[in-house]
Amino acid sequence: MNGYQQENLRIAITDAHEAVVVAWRGESDARNPRETLGPYLNLLATQLASRNVRVTFAELTYMNSATVLPIMDFLKGLSKHAAKVKVEYRQDLQWQVTSFRALRIVARGWGNVSVVAV
Amino acid sequence: MKIQIVNEKLQAPTLWQIVRDIRATMGVRFAHLDSHLIDAITLTVSELAENIVKFAATDAEHLASIELQTTPDQIRVRSENTVRSKEDAQVVLSTIERIHLHENPTALFAQSIEESMDRPTDGSRQGFYQIAAVAGFRLQGHLEGDRLVVIAERELT
Predict the structure, then answer these.
(1) Scanning every residue of chain A, which has its alpha carbon at the shortest distance from the alpha carbon of B134?
(2) Considering its fold, how many domains does chain A have in total?
């Protein structure tokens, strides 16, 4: 499993014992991330089959609206392939709190996905 | 737009780089505000700028603008651009009307995400839902001839 870097966005993968950590860092502001980032995330979701996955946005400083769909496509893919998925966002960043409040509503039917503030 | 001379070549920034530059200036311009307000303003201005780049007619004869007006209590962001088509403008205006009529911006943002996930391409103008739900701005929009005007306002609290 490889990480991802394009422009100001980095996604780092750490394969720890209990879970694979997918850490988003920097700014996600590409014009068409569903085309550029989407294929990477689709592949990653299948590579994480049967694993426990922690997806953290704690070090993501900005994301444009176009990033939301690739993230949700990724989490939906993980909900089908991975064992358990824990999504973490920063409770001290208002934009993350309000963004992930909406994303939690979308993910409410995905039984193995939890969205938590850290 | 700044044109730089690098190694004897004239280099103009891409339109997307201009959006990034605009976003970068917000933290400086509004450094006196709380960080959550800076984030909200940055998101709103950036999303409106992205919409201009993606959907407006932006040749030399059709200048677009984003204007910021602040009072001690409120901020108003006004974007104006020439539309590429009436259909594009109508999508924007109906999206803003939908947001205006809905009492819960977060629930509507979630609903718009669900609606867009099954589409191969995203023409949903997610940015407007994000401006309302995440940045807490109220939106209005109207056409002045072939010029689309979008106004976003919120209190500075």
Answers:
(1) A98
(2) 1
Supply the pTM of this predicted model.
Answer: 0.92
Specify the residue for token string 């900005």: A62
- Residues of chain B numbered 64-103 and touching chain A (CB < 8 Å): none
> CATH number of the domain at B4-155, please?
3.30.565
Place of tokens 């780089």: B17
Exposed, middle or buried: residue A52 (CB in 10 Å: 0-12, 13-18, 19+)?
middle
Provide, as residue numbers in chain A, all residues whose Cβ is less than 8 Å from the Cβ of B54: 31
**What's the CATH number where A91 sits?**
3.30.750.24
SS3 readout for A42-97: HHHHHHCCCCCEEEEEEEEEEECHHHHHHHHHHHHHHHHHCCCEEEEECCCCHHHH
Our CA-based measurement puts residue B145 at a distance from the nearest CA of chain A, in whole angstroms, of: 28
Which residue among A69, A73, A95 sits closest to B134, beta carbon to beta carbon?
A95
Bridge partners (DSSP) of residue A3 are none
Q: Which of A95, A88, A92, A73 is nearest to A27 (CA)?
A: A95
Residue B113 CB: number of other CB atoms within 10 A? 23
Please tell me the distance in Å from A19's CA to the nearest CA on chain B: 27
Q: Is B107 helix (H, G, I), strand (E, B) or coil?
A: helix
Run of H or E including A5 = strand A4-6
Do A7 and A42 form a contact (C-beta atoms < 8 A)? no
Instruction: List, for residues B70-123, the tens digit of each pLDDT value.
Output: 999 999 999 999 998 889 899 999 999 999 999 999 999 999 999 998 787 656
Which member of A65, A73, A93 has the closest CB to residue B130? A65
- Number of neighbours of residue B33 by Cβ within 10 angstroms: 17
